[in-house]
Write a structure and sequence with these properties.
The chain is an all-alpha fold. The protein has one domain: Tetracycline Repressor, domain 2 (Orthogonal Bundle), CATH 1.10.357. It is built from 10 helices and no strands. It is elongated, with a radius of gyration of 19 Å. The protein starts with a helix and ends with a helix.
Length: 198
């Protein structure tokens, strides 16, 4: 089991650095100082390795996000922590990984889409509803529509045809989109908290 985790962690580091397509099983073996045979003892092929890695990464991200959102906490504190957490997640994502995942690893891509359209939309919607109850979020918004918009806004920030990577820093784009979202959904009470958090 330890060897399998080592393969997952080592391949993740390589994929995040260079994308999925450009990394071979030979590259992973060389990076870890093991034989390809050792990798194939745990994973049938590169696609199975990628799928296992996506499952692991999404489970870790889900656990981290769930630990921030509690049923009793202050929504604005949770929003600030969520911003920090998503910043950490986005800072390690190479846009090529999402492109390669979509184009070459269907099963992994479907897991990502399920996470995005299911878990992420639901957690943002839950946060927005809590914000309405606590007076920080405008009560007239449709939380489902806005949650779906926010998830797609995050993905838009990775789109190189909209925000060319040579011209825009990924995290700066995400931060601008996040600020636009936050200031758009908050009441004056919520905006006052946001202004004090900066």
């Amino acid at each position: 089991m330890i060897e399998k985790e080592r393969v997952l962690n080592g391949s993740e580091a390589l994929f995040l650095e260079a994308g999925i397509k450009s990394i071979t099983m030979d590259d992973i073996a060389r990076h870890l100082g093991i034989s390809k045979k050792t990798i194939y003892q745990h994973f049938r092929d590169k696609n199975e390795l990628v799928t296992a890695l996506v499952k692991k990464r999404l489970a870790d991200d889900e656990a981290m996000l769930c630990s921030i959102i509690s049923d009793t906490g202050n929504m604005m504190d949770e929003m600030v922590e969520l911003t920090k957490c998503t910043g950490e997640i986005f800072s390690r994502v190479n846009p090529a990984v999402l492109f390669d995942l979509q184009k070459y690893h269907h099963e992994g891509w479907m897991l990502y889409l399920k996470f995005k359209t299911g878990f992420m939309v639901n957690i943002i919607e839950k946060l927005l509803k809590k914000g309405i109850d606590q007076g920080y979020v405008r009560p007239e918004i449709d939380t489902r529509i806005i949650a779906i918009m926010r998830v797609n806004q995050i993905e838009l920030g990775f789109n190189a045809s909209v925000y060319p990577h040579a011209e825009f820093n990924l995290w700066d784009v995400q931060l601008q989109l996040l600020n636009h979202f936050n200031y758009g959904v908050c009441t004056l009470k919520g905006i006052a908290v946001l202004n004090n958090a900066d």
